[in-house]
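A protein record pairs a chain with a discrete description of its three-dimensional fold. The shape at a given residue is found from the number at the same position. Here is what such a record looks like in full:
>
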Amino acid sequence: MRHFGHISPTVRKDLFHQEPVVFTAASPARILAAALGATLYSPATRPQLAADVRKQAGRGVVSMVLCLEDSISDGDVAGAEENLVRQFAQLDREQAAYDTDDPDAAELPLLFVRVRTPEQIPDLARRLGRSVRRLAGFVLPKFDESRGIAFLEAVAHAEAASGVPRLYAMPVLETPELLHLETRVEALAGISRAVGRHRERVLALRLGVTDFCSAYGLRRTPDMTAYDVQIVAGVIADVVNVLSRADGTGFTVTGPVWEYFRSQQRLFKPQLRRSPFLEEGVEELRTALIEHDLDGLLREIELDRANGLLGKTCIHPAHVTPVHALSVVSHEEFSDAQDILRPERGGGGVMRSAYTNKMNEVKPHRAWAERTMLRAEVFGVAKEEVGFVDLLTAGLQV
């Protein structure tokens, strides 16, 4: 699979200075963590789940979470598990029949299951049988140190029992102890200890912002981002501070869910500037994004990246292409990162950027440049004249 693999090779060639790489579930964890992109959640109760997975893969989704937790009622869990086993068996049969010579053809997304309890993990892995090879791992809800160790050990046991090369874990950080100021420091330290003991298994950390808001009876409107809710913004900052450092100890932390996907009465003026949409015919795209409350999503994606997050939890297919379009590295970013990382710059120093509009300081900007080059590898580098509107339009037209 690869990002933008659902669009034609000719269109990709026109858009990218450096195309996104092909990757598989067996690729290194650093590649997979960066490549998660818009992780689309779906209730495991959906009767045509296998067909839904295929459909979303054809639209550019590269990671999905099939949910047995908050998205379904307590009484539906047993039925959802049975449905999940059936649907995985169907996907496995179908996938085995495909010709895999073309890396862009009929590829399944990275598939994760969001469970409720540690005990579900080995049980589901056993029940999946041979089709467990189509499973990338598990999403672990309400993760803290005490619950988290049991979850992570259950994933390790399921991997050993099923014989697959690797089952990853993606903890969700969403407990009240993490939100409350008086317990946050110890909660973060405990999470750090837990995931540090299982570093090779933890693919990424996910933020449960809806649960954070719930603890205070809050809900942001489509005119506001998570960063406008100061209680939430403070938690995000502290999570990145402790768990996503660029010194080799950090993990990929993904962006919070955007809840809105249809028009509601707007209190504030649209956040989406007209200037990127001034070309003939493109103003209609801006209007469509505003009508579907996606201008707020675009702003939140930009703020995610500015605050050290990569990828995003999504609950609607309409959110996927905007997340991926804004994850592509611009030609200017790529040029700056290349300059900073040149071997002859190893001793440090300062130089004017090739775009002559900023200062590139080698030592302070090195970690940013390394992260940018990793993002360039998985999402590609846009051509100099290509902007996010071009990428958005190409992705939406498929």
User: Anything to note?
Assistant: Residues 22-328 form a domain with the TIM Barrel fold (CATH 3.20.20.60). The two ends are 16 Å apart (CA to CA).
